[in-house]
Amino acid sequence: MAADTINTDAQTTLGSGRLKRVAIQGERGSNSHMAALEMLGEIEIVACGVSGEVIDAVVSGRVDGAVLPIENSLHGSVAEHYDLLLENPVRIDAESLLRIRHNLIAAPGVRLEEIRNVLSHPVALSQCRRFLAGFTQAKSVPFYDTAGSVKHVVGEGLKDTAGVAPELAAKEYGGVVLVADIEDHAQNYTRFHLLRRGSESRDVEGAEANKLSLAFAVEHRPGTLVAALERLRDAGVDLTKIESRPVPGRPWEYVFYVDLRFADEAMADLAVSSLKPHCSLVKELGRYAAA
Fold first, then answer.
1. Is 190 tagged catalytic?
2. Residue 205 pLDDT
3. What is the pTM of this model?
């Protein structure tokens, strides 16, 4: 499997047999599938159609956890997943970074010169613009999933169509890589979160937590966001990311999501407690080892 992860000890600390069934959004053979294997080793993958189904599977106990993307270095954040983290009793237990490699994959026996259509998720197609612009013999066609495009091409035995997906999709469905690494940028990484039920004890061993994800909301008046950020500064944490999402039903009001690096648990505790007097909402989303 051609996968590059920046997470030196995730598999040894997480793949200890505690997680048997893990949900992902999309088909087997996707980047989420690859990320789950890299983080956890050989586990049972439960493929779900949409992200809400993934979270439902975790909350209901039908799976032990989930691996979901939260941010791509080129495409940006996955806004829906921030909303799901806030709305559901789940937490982040770990993260990893996966180097994204896109490949042109066809059914066995199909030659490159026969391809007239290229299927894949719109984001994957957009990340392969240079190759596709030069591949003038074929047109690009949006599809619901990267690995799903290969599943469709091989399953239907299409002779004039290829999918754009990870190499794992070719192995999963019996496809053949016609052209490898067709992505525009080598520095294309996706950050994934391992999610567990909020009620589960945190039993990840080895890597110490040094990163904290929080969601908070402030009153809609001048200076409230600055005041909240000053409290985080005073706690000594390192703010590495801030993201805002609209509050449903309350136009022009926002929930802020922040990632913080901390030196010890006392610092993390202080960051959380210092926000509470100044915010209408504070939810700790997880403490985990930074990738």
1. yes
2. 53
3. 0.89
